[in-house]
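Office hours follow-up: a student asked to see two folded examples consecutively, so here they are.
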Amino acid sequence: MASFQVCSKTKNSYVHNCGGALIRRRWVLTAAHCKFTGFIRVVLGAHSLSWNEKSQQKFQVEEQHPHPDFNNDANANDIMLLKLSDEAKIDEYVKLLKLPTDKNADVTPGTRCTVAGWGATEPNSHYPSVTLQGVDLTVVDRETCNSDYRGDPKITQDMICAGDSQGIKDSYKGDSGGPLICNGVYKAIVTAGPDVPDPKMPGIYTLLSKKYLDWIEKITGVQTYNMTAAGLY
């Protein structure tokens, strides 16, 4: 996991902004709505964001590449690449997250997936979790999700929805940009969701569909099916 952090003027220090995934030694994949103007960095290999753990690797962000068709109002094309100032060292704490090799594969409704991040753990909280958290969610079909959101935003083929039928667990503020893992495969990016966990309002995720995988290849200059990884995180 990657913590995408921004420099807080009030605290004079870096604070967690969004999650992300290291897909190449110098490239992190996150959400476009996380784009920030100012001093930004990425922390890899962290479990706690309150401690300077020996496992952590910290990098300045050299370039931000939001998708050119990103539309914040519609949550459309909410995907961004971050180029790090140097190559990450792959070890037991920092690993590459492999992108899906089947560019046309969707995620079947009912599939159990996992999302991880440092997002807030309390309703209406703006403070990130101190430690990395994970939660299991179930994919919801697009027709139901569109009905739940009343078409605002419109859930397209480039999005999927996932949630908890009890409305107890979900991705939340600060989890944006983090990876959704389904059957061991990196399938989507945390995009949006309700202000508080709601069984009728699942989270919205940007599906790593063919058009996004092709765009990643164009920006990074590396074909996604040639990417290898030693593990998920």
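And the second, which I mentioned at the end of office hours:
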Amino acid sequence: MKLNYLSLFLILFFSIFQFTEQIGVSKSPWPDKYHLELTLSIPGSSINQPITCDYDLSSNKVRIDQYHGLSVNLFRYDQDPKYYYEMVVAQTQQICFKNHSNLYSNTIPVFLPDYSKWTKLDPEVRRGVRVNAYQLTTKKHDTETIYTFYINTENNHPVQYTVKGVLDIFAQHFDEYIINYYIYIPDRVDDSVFDLPKICAESDQYSYNHVFGRNLFNFKKLFPSPIKEESEFDKFLEKYSKNYAGEEYFKRKQIFERNLNKINQHNKKKSTYTLAVNKFADLTFEEVESIYLLPKRDVPISKQSALNFNSEKLMPNDQLPHHFNWLNYGAVTSVKDQGTCSSSWAFAAAGTLEGQYFLATSNLESVSAQNIIDCSWESEYPSYGCDGSSHWKALNSVKEMGGFMNKNDYPYLSVSGYCAFDKSQSLSTIDKIVNITSSDYEVAQSLYEYGPMSISLHVIESLLFYSGGLYNDVMCSQENVNYAALLIGYGFWEEDPTQAYWLIKSSWGDTWGDEGYLYIARDNNLCGVCSEVSYVVLGDISSIDN
């Protein structure tokens, strides 16, 4: 599977964070106050991200800038109450959200590794500088991961940090990651960098997700957990490359054990589906709602400007095949991972555009979800970037925008960026949007005739840990939809030929569910699968492979 290097890259930026146990208490060889400038790169790709960090841990203040200020994270824990400020791009301007530090209230990110217990190697030369090298090697499933840290022999300043191995980011993939440190100024920092920018000082906006550090939370970590008990929780930490310390470790362990108990209790019962531990297992459902799911919608789908569905054009239901799956026809791209950006709405919209483009050209293109995220703030039915929206709003925005771009030309960042839509690179335009809010028979007929369709779902706790089989939890309602996905198939369950099902593609990566997919019963519009269904009719096609 071709990796989205920029998406991986941003994840790795946050994954190098370690967390101190208490505010202002450093657990590393580094001082409480310093300025740091570095780049993070992936050899073999064009990625070379500049990052600037300023730390004053003794005063509980940290600022981290990515891409020369495109995204800014400012921790002001010297305030009462403690606030975390997040400056992000909204289409053409930068805006500021402020958040209470309710999730990581006792932690601040530290950007340099604690190498004190690593093995010292022979001195060598790196980037023209003589360095001391320190190395840690871990082994998982017969695969080694090697962490190496290089320090200037004259002044003990950081020079380079490298990681080589399988990191379980999106898939089992061997790679190399390099951090080059260019400026390190210990024991002093320009205090003015912690001053609140005007847009933050005047801001009364709270993140729609109301969770501190949405993009810091739950990203993969490059360093192993400092606590080495042999427990199911530690196996989980290792598998998903997570790292907690102090009170946070024990808090997350308790949550994990509660979720694990629920999973085991379900799997002991006779059921048509199974549950399993996945990346959500150390979170409460409320945290998952805040980070990954969508907020309550402000405009129902029936109110938006789109064509009403005309069922008279469909073939009789008895003429439909009993099983149908657009995967078998090449109309569906690989499962993506939205990360901690609440962007399922954009991936669902991108999926139906991919299907329509394939049907028109016989070419399967990965449509840019980032393009949709960045450029949907100012449409008739606005979206809110990584704070969520609806798939039908996204399609409406694409129609207004006048096209949509390829993922390779507009890669995924997992944060909101400046709108960079280039109409000259657009794959096509949307001529019409069709919404279906009627029976599942009409949804099945439309799916067969018109291609993959974006849908809304009501996600409940049991669905979070779905790992296979036919999902049929009757507690999942038709209302309160809070997630968007792509409907790609239907059929009848092999173990019970009388039971019809839908096949749905998620945006939670291929480690969730059945390799990223969900089989769900077609009973009584379970989980609201048929409540909000959309597809499009494309306009001009800019590129057809002859």
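Two things to take away from it. Residues 136 and 147 are 5 Å apart (CA to CA). Residues 289-541 form a domain with the Cathepsin B; Chain A fold (CATH 3.90.70.10).
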